[in-house]
Write a structure and sequence with these properties.
five-stranded mixed sheet, 4 helices, 5 strands, 33% strand
Length: 152
């Protein structure tokens, strides 16, 4: 299977994302994505929203082969069209990653599996995933109930 096809499949499996571009940097695969365009409404008043800006979030995902996958998500900042609404702007969210997190949900589960099932030292995981120790630990705690640990 070609590398591009593997990248496309990895992104497709995350949900409503469109692959803009990808490139290699060192041994990592960097993919630039955006959410698929669809009508968006204000979460406060329900009025139609219009795009105002974009912000790029860097999120680590499951590796493709031995290469870490880094997602550069060009998130839209939305603007409420209702001038009387207190909401004004907000940034889009997606199901594949929790707000303000740097690992996809499936990467968190894999990291937790490595610690809880494979017994990889938690001290080694931050270096492997290129996250801080506190990010690794909070990820493990967040999803540990989703990881099936074999009983003795």
């Amino acid at each position: 299977m070609s590398e591009r096809l593997e990248v496309e499949r990895a992104i497709e499996s995350l949900g409503d994302l469109r692959l803009i571009d990808y490139h290699l940097a060192g041994n990592e695969i960097y993919v630039q994505v955006e959410t698929l365009r669809k009508p968006v409404y204000c979460p406060s008043c329900g009025s139609t929203a219009e795009p105002k800006d974009r912000r790029t979030s860097t999120i680590r995902d499951m590796p493709i082969g031995n290469r870490p996958l880094v997602i550069l998500w060009k998130k839209r900042v939305w603007n409420c069209t209702n001038k009387e609404c207190a909401q004004v702007t907000w940034t889009e969210t997606a199901n594949f990653v929790s707000s303000r997190h740097s690992l996809t949900n499936r990467a968190k589960r894999d990291l937790a599996r490595q610690a809880l099932v494979d017994k990889v030292s938690v001290a080694q995981l931050p270096q492997k995933w290129k996250v801080s120790w506190s990010t690794a630990m909070s990820s493990i705690r967040e999803v540990e109930d989703q990881v099936k640990v074999p009983t003795q």
